[in-house]
Design brief:
The protein has about 250 residues and is an alpha+beta fold. The chain is about 30% helix and about 40% strand. It folds into 2 domains: about 25-210, Immunoglobulin-like; about 215-245, no CATH class. It is built from 5 helices and 12 strands.
């Protein structure tokens, strides 16, 4: 009798345990790109890449896109008589060749300054260091502003406010624009989810921008064999000039 009762209890308990499945924790942030490769051809005029993602609830999203870092030389010109000459130059190290910020609303409204500086969110928070220890801080700030202004005029730096479209407090999307003069290399698309002034989650999505076709062959040849490329360019220009002069003499 006891055996029968025990068997009955086990049979009634098994389905309940079988129905219990382990709960998978919800990921706070998921993001991806419509394409992880931007191919630059001779007809490339710029392109847009779609960034899309989802969160586990309400929050603010900020995206920082940075291109390959390189040293940039900024020169200050002074007018001497009728001409302008370079009187001062500063080399800023490890500067992003491309920089763009998009966010659900102005980042100053939901990110404290300490985190803006730490994560380099905003053009004013990009780290631009120099090996010249003799330059005053006020002059260094002027060179930084000049570089940001030049990059912005070239379309390589941008801080688009309100560029992220939030949908139902969970889904989001944004169009990332890359102009025709965008540098080649590996880009980092850093996505941050903020709540109450804190980073809840972050994700980095890689993006590769590269040249293809004959343009890529010429680009590689010019960078790998710079001296030979320069010599061929001079010879080609001289040949074209000689041919043009010969044609005009016959005419």
């Amino acid at each position: 009798m006891r055996a029968a009762v025990l068997t009955l209890l086990l049979l009634t308990a098994l389905p309940a345990h079988a129905q219990e499945e382990p709960r998978v924790p919800e990921v706070p942030l998921v993001a991806d790109l419509s394409s992880h490769l931007v191919a630059i051809t001779s007809r490339f005029t710029g392109t847009d890449v779609l960034l899309f993602g989802a969160t586990d609830g309400p929050g603010d999203v900020a995206v920082v896109v940075t291109g390959p870092k390189r040293d940039e030389v900024v020169r200050h010109k002074t007018r001497v008589g009728p001409i302008w000459i370079n009187t001062k130059d500063v080399t800023l190290a490890s500067v992003p060749s491309y920089y763009r910020v998009v966010s659900s609303r102005p980042v100053e409204e939901f990110v404290p300054q300490t985190l803006l500086t730490r994560h380099e969110i905003g053009v004013d928070n990009i780290r631009m260091l120099t090996a010249d220890e003799n330059i005053p801080l006020d002059q260094l700030a002027e060179f930084r502003k000049a570089l940001v202004r030049l990059k912005t005029n070239e379309g390589l730096y941008d801080q688009g406010i309100g560029a992220i479209n939030m949908m139902s407090n969970r889904l989001f999307r944004a169009e990332l624009h890359f102009p025709s003069n965008v540098p080649v290399g590996t880009y980092n698309v850093q996505v941050y989810l903020f709540r109450e002034g804190q980073v809840v989650a972050a994700e980095i999505v890689p993006l590769n921008i590269s040249k293809i076709g004959i343009g890529a062959d010429i680009y590689d040849f010019a960078h790998n064999f710079a001296s030979l490329y320069g010599l061929l360019a001079v010879l080609l220009a001289a040949s074209a000039g000689w041919a043009a002069s010969a044609v005009f003499r016959r005419v």
